[in-house]
Amino acid sequence: MNTPPQTQPQKRPIIFSAMQPTSGSGGGLTIGNYIGALKNWVELQKDYDCVYGVVDLHALTIHPEPAALRKQTLDVAAMYIASGIDPEKSLVFLQSHVPAHAQCAWLLNCFASMGECQKMTQFKEKSEKHSARVGLFTYPVLQAADILLYQANLVPVGEDQKQHLELSRNLAERFNHHYSETFTVPEVFIPKVGARVMSLQDPTKKMSKSDENPKATIFLTDSADEIRNKIKRAVTDSGSEIRSGDDRPALTNLLELYGVATGTSVEAAEQHFLGKGYAEFKAELADAMVAMVEPITKRFHAIRNDKAALNAILKKGAEEANRRAMRTLRKAYKKMGLVELE
Predict the structure, then answer these.
(1) Of these residues, 119, 124, 205, 206, which one is catalytic?
(2) Which class does domain 14-195+307-336 fall in?
(3) Domain boundaries along the sequence of the chain
(4) Which residues make beta-bridge pairs with 189?
(5) Active-site annotation holds for 126
């Protein structure tokens, strides 16, 4: 009897994504981070080999208070897991636990031009608010190292990050052309779902965890009362009709939030609130937001309070991240002519 040949399991495409721990009025991740990214990251675990980092080295460019940075870094890692990212399915790690990130960034710095870094939108914007230090200037090169070390095939990015991914692609292609195929050239991944959540106080601006106005942002650690108060005080457009449209950015934002929280379309939400007032709309929206956020908040506190378990997850993640990253870094070192000890 002939036994059929065994087939090798097909490797899944690698997706890399990360968030930076940053201080702000609330200091944590927001519903914007959840709806626009984390919710999608959880879904991606089904079909992709997912690598999710907490990029704490990037946070150093604005000299955060050390104790606050440590807390926020662990908060972000815990919120990944509370949101549904499974450390048994995905690689979860802290960037500073993998020295290869800084080492690879130096190699890539040797391929990046001054002009490329100078034209980065984030550098131009942030250098107006803070002293333009070298770390801020080469920030996108470290981002490229984050991605390329894990041979990522795909990177989920928003409009504000496409420029940085393009630099990552250029550096990978430049290195590969000069030496030989070393880095996978990553492609942009456009998620199937995901909304751009805007500020509750200024719907022309993206909701931000570093917004100076605490009423503008709903954090994933907010209590039910805090969420209700922020929704109640959210700005609305002139008129009384509850509908979306380019001329009604505030209502469009709130209707999209309602749609995500309840699993309905904006059109269905408009029909549901036809003839109803802002007070009733905001009350229902607040209930929906609380129902969505409260279970995440409870899981977050349970994970965050079990320091030993969180430490074990991050230690295991660091070991696997180091193994993968060093495999790529050793290859790059060898091709560039750096001496490897026998």
Answers:
(1) 206
(2) alpha beta
(3) 14-195+307-336, 222-303
(4) 156
(5) yes
